[in-house]
Amino acid sequence: MSGSVSETGAMRDAQPRVLRVEDEAAIRGAVTTALIQAGYLPRAEADGTKLRAVAEAFRPDLAILDIMLPGPDGLCLARMLRDRIDLPILFLTARGGVDDRLAGFAAGADDYLVKPCTPRRPAGRSPSVSVTTTTRRR
Ligand code: CA
User: Fold this and answer.
1) What is the dihedral of CA 78, 86, 14, 63, to 10 degrees?
2) Distance CA 20, CA 17 (A)
3) What is the pLDDT of residues 60-90, one digit of tens each?
4) With contact defined as beta carbons under 8 Å apart, do 103 and 75 qualify?
5) What is the reported pTM?
6) Contacts of 40 (CB under 8 A, 6+ apart)
7) pLDDT in tens, 19-64
């Protein structure tokens, strides 16, 4: 008996597809690892310049967007995705101000999570960002 689903690859299509845009490589890698461990099929982009084509090819079930990005910002990308695909959009951003949150929801976000200022902040400080901090190995 094997609990592994990676042997056949048959389960891949059943995995929720998560499209991430994050320009900070360390965060991008940590979140990608956490998503894989949680059973998602993530795809990470460092910026949104090719996001339209990527979204059409990857067909994500969920998008998680940073806001401060080189090229088009996350708000811009959210509006672009909203116009084309019906999917939940989350912002995961360092911008935690009320106006920033309102702008995020106005751009079509379903949720708005604020990143810790440093990756070393303990996971318990903010449950909403636990996805970024669950890569700790035990
Ligand atoms: Ca950023």
Assistant:
1) 10
2) 10
3) 999 999 999 999 999 999 999 999 988 999 9
4) yes
5) 0.74
6) 15, 16, 17, 18
7) 999 999 988 998 888 889 889 999 999 999 999 999 999 999 999 9
Q: Which domains does the chain have, with CATH numbers?
A: 3-137 (3.40.50.2300)
Fill in the amino acid letter for 116. Answer: P
- Quick check: 36 and 136 in contact, CB under 8 A? no
Residue 67 Cα to ligand 1 midpoint, Å, equals 6
Output phi, psi for 80, to 5 deg: -65, -45
**Which tokens belong to 77?**
């990308």
Give how far the C-alpha of residue 61 lies from the chain's centroid of Cα atoms, to the nearest Å: 11
Residue 47: closest CA among 75, 19, 70: 70
The single-letter code of the amino acid at 122 is P
Q: Residue 1 Cα, ligand 1 centroid: separation in angstroms? A: 43
Distance (angstroms) between ligand 1 centre and the Cα of 120 equals 17
